[in-house]
Amino acid sequence: MSSDNGKIVLGVLAGLAAGALLGILFAPDKGSETRKKIINKGEEASDGLKEKLNDLLNDLNQKIDAAKAKARETTSETSNS
To answer: Which end of the chain, N or C, is less packed with Cβ atoms under 10 Å?
Structure first.
């Protein structure tokens, strides 16, 4: 996944979280119920961001491993020549 795609997904998640928060704040509930909803939505958003960050880190690790393998291959070919 490219960094542009990651930024787009994070932007969408942030927009969804902001929209959900505004919806909760303007809903006609008791204060205690509103606070519970805000906490739940915050935890959901946090979980989504953690998952996305893990995906980005895994992608980065794969690219680093591929670059290392390519460097080893190039070094091996150069020393064999």
So the answer is: C
